[in-house]
Specification:
single chain, 572 residues, alpha/beta, Rossmann fold, 3-stranded antiparallel beta sheet, 19 strands, 30% helix
Length: 572
């Protein structure tokens, strides 16, 4: 068993790193991996946090590249939520392994992002995954998915005792901007201990994210660029960290642009299914466009935010109220029309209930031996309720985000890859395709004029189609839901590798330079490509159990094996 190494930071007082070499998940001979924490005292985060000062212990899991790690690029992966553990992706999407149905074993993922890149997965904001502010005893109610701090309890099959973060909403981030400032300090500290894992010793980094990561990644990357400028003009003294590439997999980007495409996609998608009646879709669109509707409320939120909370500390009650109300209205009256479909918002082929993530994932990360191997002193939280409440209900962060950061990144030569599975409703490809066409930078005309061409994954498989030029690509991936890497791992892995090398997504054989050396050719739209829905994919067992299963769990008659209810059987 590896010994935990503890290093005090010389650059940031009140900060230290604790980590160990790991031997689980990534089992490729000779490939190293490390897990651990960067611990920040409140004094290390002056001017970064919003409501109050609190400790942060941010968990990371790093996997060096399977090929040439000393010259491979470095990429950070950020899951969404908000409040989702990035570590989930290591064992169910794009990491080195998959977890078996027994929640106790793993097997290799040949299409891992670390095939040719050094990968750093970070559980953030604090209270997500294995990250914590303060450790408390508590219970996790499997029926409600609620974690409650308490010293004593009588555990049973649905009420599990454990160690958790505080659950205090004042002790975590409440805006994406706060997350960006915190992560910049994290990366500065991490690189001081792991300097060998940047390409050719130059300090550059790439960011990839899924779902709410579509909000995180552009803001975080843009913050790194703005910090670089402050370093260059002498305002602050730190290392410059260049941003090379960003990638979004089914990430939400700008609610103002995307919102009307939720009801549109619900009735006009590549699978020829009307998930809701057209009249309901029309009503939802009207709720977006009408005076005082969703669009107007988002614009009001952004105007007030720019005037009264430009630093996005999330402490101005007026701005918070307006933005939170805008989010609630848009979610309930535009996106919410989809509820009557009885289908998963993450895979329109799946009838509810479905398990996302598979129950084997939280089961694995909450095994004692896994926590010991990773050096984690607490239970794993897949999606932090405290973070989610803060971002959505307190500050309305989702509707504050806009395409401005993406515009700036493209204008500054950052490579941008947008990768979207076409069975996802939550951050559907039609809405983000529209985002890509509205991006405003020097290459806009070339990009809008480019066409869709096939993505050749291997000699016999076409994974989707892509529009690309001037360092921007938009990939429409066939037969994939919200966690696109889960459904199409080889396709997404190939796109990741090609994007990181600044190659064309279609074949990986042509350089795609910012000067526009490459431009994809084909039809201007891919909506005409029609497909057939597969049989309902439930990802294994249900985490939204049927009423009969919930009742059996509550009265103690359910039979549970490897964290899965096997009796009574779920009938949908």
């Amino acid at each position: 068993m590896s010994v935990t190494k503890i290093i005090r930071s010389n650059d940031i007082p009140g900060t230290y790193i604790s980590y160990k070499q790991t031997d689980i998940c990534e089992t490729t001979p000779g490939v190293k991996s490390y897990s651990g924490y960067i611990h920040f005292a409140p004094s290390a985060l002056q001017g970064v946090q919003g409501v109050g000062l609190y400790n942060i212990s941010t968990f990371f899991w790093f996997f060096e590249a399977r090929t040439n790690p000393r010259t491979a690029p470095l990429a950070v992966y950020l899951a969404g939520g908000p409040g989702e553990a990035s570590t989930a992706a290591t064992v169910m999407e794009n990491g080195p392994c998959y977890v078996g149905d027994d929640s106790n074993t793993t097997y290799v993922n040949p299409w891992s992002f670390n095939n040719f890149a050094n990968m750093l997965y970070i559980d953030q904001p604090v209270q997500a995954g294995y990250s914590y502010d303060t450790l408390v005893n508590g219970t996790w109610d499997l029926l409600t998915n609620q974690t409650t701090p308490m010293d004593t309890t009588e555990p049973n099959s649905t009420l599990l005792a454990g160690t958790f973060p505080s659950q205090n909403i004042n002790f975590t981030a409440n805006t994406t901007a706060i997350g960006a400032r915190t992560l910049w300090i994290f990366v500065q500290t991490w690189l001081s201990e792991f300097p060998d894992y940047t390409r050719n010793k130059s300090t550059s980094i790439s960011f990839w994210g899924n779902s709410y990561g579509g909000f995180y990644v552009p803001r975080y990357a843009a913050h790194f660029l703005s910090q670089n400028q402050k370093i260059k003009d002498g305002t602050i003294q730190r290392r410059t960290i260049d941003v090379d590439t960003i990638g979004l997999t089914n990430g939400c980007v700008d609610a103002l642009i995307q919102a009307p495409f939720y009801p549109i996609y619900a009735v006009n998608n590549t699978y020829n299914i009307e998930t809701i009646p057209p009249a309901i879709a029309a009503e939802a669109i009207n709720n977006y466009t009408k005076s005082g509707g969703c669009a107007d409320q988002i614009l009001q939120c952004r105007k007030l935010g720019a005037e009264s909370d430009p630093y996005e500390l999330g402490i101005n009650e007026t701005v918070n109220t307006v933005c939170a109300n805008a989010y609630a209205y848009c979610f309930n009256n535009v996106l919410g029309a989809y509820v009557i479909s009885k289908r998963s918002a993450y895979d329109i082929s799946a009838l509810l209930p479905v398990a996302i993530p598979p129950l084997s994932v939280p089961g694995f990360f909450n095994q004692d031996w896994v926590q010991t191997a990773l050096g984690a002193p607490l239970n794993w939280t897949y999606n932090s309720a405290a973070v989610r409440l803060n971002f959505q209900s307190i500050t309305g962060d989702p509707v504050r985000r806009n395409i401005g950061d993406l515009n700036d990144l493209l204008q500054n030569g950052v490579n941008v890859a947008l990768i979207y599975g076409d069975r996802d409703f939550m951050c559907n490809w039609v809405g983000v395709e529209n985002v890509s066409l509205q991006l405003d930078w020097a290459g806009k005309e070339n990009f809008v004029g480019a066409g869709y061409t096939n993505i050749s994954v291997n000699a016999s498989f076409i994974g989707g189609v892509v529009r690309q030029t001037n360092g921007l690509s938009f990939s429409h991936i066939f037969q994939a839901g919200h966690s696109v890497s889960f459904w199409q791992p080889e396709t997404v892995s190939k796109i990741f590798d090609r994007a990181m090398l600044h190659k064309n997504v279609a074949t990986g054989e042509v350089d795609d330079g910012y000067i526009g050396a490459y431009k994809s050719k084909g039809p201007a739209s891919s909506l005409s490509i029609r497909e057939t829905l597969p049989e309902s994919d439930v990802w294994g067992a249900s985490d939204s159990c049927t009423k009969e299963q919930l009742a059996a769990l509550a009265n103690g008659t359910a039979v549970v094996q490897d964290f899965v209810v096997v009796e009574p059987k779920g009938v949908r």
